[in-house]
Amino acid sequence: MAPPFSQALPATAPISVIHQRPAWRDTLVSLRIRNYRLFTFSNLLSMTGTWMQRIAQDWLVLELTGSVAAVGITVAMQFAPMLLFGLFGGVFVDRHSRRSILLATQLALFVLAGALAALTLSGGVQVWQVYVIAFLVGTVTVFDNPARQVFVNELVGPAKLHNAISINSSVFQLGGLIGPALSGALLVAVGAGWSFAINGASCLFVVAALLRLRVDELHPTTPAVRAPGQLREGLRYVVAKPAILWTMVMIAVMSLFTFSMPVLLAAYARDVFEVGAGGYGLFNTLLAVGAFTGAIASTRRLGIRLRTVIFTAGLFGALQAVAGFMPSQVFFCVVLVGVGFANLLFITGANSLVQVSSNMGVRGRVMSVYVLLLLGGQAVGGPLMGWMVETYGAHVGMAVSGLAPVVAAVVIGIVLARQGQLRLRISLRREPRFLSIVTRSPRDEVLVAGQKA
Fold first, then answer.
1. Which phi and psi angles does 324 have, rounded to 5°?
2. Using the 8-state DSSP alphabet, how is residue 270 labeled?
3. Where would I find the Major facilitator superfamily (MFS) profile domain in this sequence (predicted)?
4. Where in the chain are the domains?
């Protein structure tokens, strides 16, 4: 007879509890680890290249077709493989060396970026070729993204995991700050092809960093032994833990409605404010400014709770809805910074909560579900928001994309309250007086020591 699921995996390794905010000198404490520092700096170059390719690819499709809906199809092609195969990618990551997987995926991304650069610079690129390469990039991401998520723990160990996740988000958004600006300038000056070429070169820096890591200083985890039912086991694990389950539900809503910003911003740049490729790059840069600030702020957190994740999702959506009705480009740009800030508070919180709530034996599978919802949902959301923009206009599309997570956050809050997992607490004994919602069973949503599987 098989053991109960709760006993099928060993207890999660103890996780350090932070009782006070770290000193400012420790805000980037994970970077003191040589392996993590080397990987992070190479990752910054890679993320800059990734953002450059993303912006150039979307604008290239818009130029080739004149259709915002076609940009949505491009987004769908890139994220569809995650929707179709993402769970199997997580099983693969749990069974194999994450470092070896990343070496293979970065080399594959180098080849694909080089092919797109060659097609574009030759002047013979067609939209179907962009679609195909986007789909192949998405297929590589099925393995690259969960491996990258789990590999962070091997670089820094569990004690510094939350800090490292926040730094990773900062790096991603710093790339989003530099990449769109560079890509926008290149689009105006020489076209999209050189953005693709630079992205290809950036992949090689990650390969070089991975080869230079000191393997004896890693915190390796034993790969899962191939066995039947591992995919089902990972899904049951997600459903069994409320902190993971409700975070995943919120991620799914955000992915479907809110994370299709390239589609929405392309419409605002072309149709609303008529600022062209340069303006499109500027809008993405402003989002990244806010997001980078939010990522740095997240390194100061003592911990992360489910209520914080749900609240920041609602705040993110509300700001995005407000952006849809800004009367001028200046006000629109100001709100975009706030949208980026709330976005990163939500994303880093959701990522941290899911990772530290997961046993290392199933973390690859859990993170594959996370990435499937995060990226795969955009395979549906991209065309959906593209259709909405072309049918009802950019303002309506932006408003709907923001209001959906607000509604979801309210509904999830009500459900949790009715289940008795949340209660209202009012404190009048300490200054400043405050009103907060706390959990009745905090072990499922607060970072605690000796957390069980």
1. -65, -20
2. I
3. 35-420
4. 32-220+230-422+431-444
Largest CA distance in the chain: 71
Whole-angstrom CA distances from 356 to 80, 144, 163, 187, 346 are 27, 20, 12, 41, 16
Q: Looking at the chain, how many residues does it have?
A: 453
| DSSP string for 135-171 | HHHHHHHHHHHHHHHHHHHHHH-GGGHHHHHHHHHHH
The CA radius of gyration of the chain, in Å to the nearest whole number, is 21
Q: d(Cα 376, Cα 372) in Å, to the nearest integer?
A: 5
The kind and range of the H/E element at 449 are none
Q: Is residue 362 scored above 90 in pLDDT?
A: no
pLDDT at 21 over 60: no
CATH code at 32-220+230-422+431-444 = 1.20.1250.20
* pLDDT tens per residue, range 226-281: 665 677 877 888 888 888 899 999 999 998 888 878 788 888 888 888 888 778 87
Rounded to 5, what percent of the chain is helix, strand, coil? 75, 5, 20
Non-local CB neighbours of 395 within 8 Å, separated by 6+ positions: 272, 324, 325
Whether the CB-CB separation of 368 and 89 falls below 8 Å is answered with yes
Average pLDDT of span 19-45: 77
How many angstroms separate the CA atoms of 148 and 172, rounded?
A: 12
Closest CA to 213 of 88, 102, 304, 128: 102
Cα(387)–Cα(331) distance, integer angstroms: 26
pLDDT band for 38, please (50, 70, 90 cuts): very high
Q: Which two tokens stand for residue 134?
A: 């986007």
Residues whose CB is less than 8 angstroms from the CB of residue 297 and which lie 6 or more positions away in sequence, other chains included: 341, 345
* Res 75: pLDDT: 80
Written as one letter, the residue type at 73 is I
What is the residue whose two structure tokens read 């693709």?
A: 196
Q: Provide the pLDDT for residue 226.
A: 64
Model pLDDT for residues 71-116, shown as the tens digit of each residue: 888 888 887 887 788 778 777 887 888 899 999 999 999 999 999 9
Is the four-CA dihedral 10, 14, 15, 19 of positive or negative sign?
Answer: positive
Backbone angles phi, psi at 437, to 5 degrees: -110, 130
Asked whether residue 11 carries a pLDDT value surpassing 70, the answer given is: no
* DSSP string covering 346-395: HHHHHHHHHHHTS-TTTHHHHHHHHHIIIIIHHHHHHHHHHHHHHHH-HH
The reported pTM is 0.67
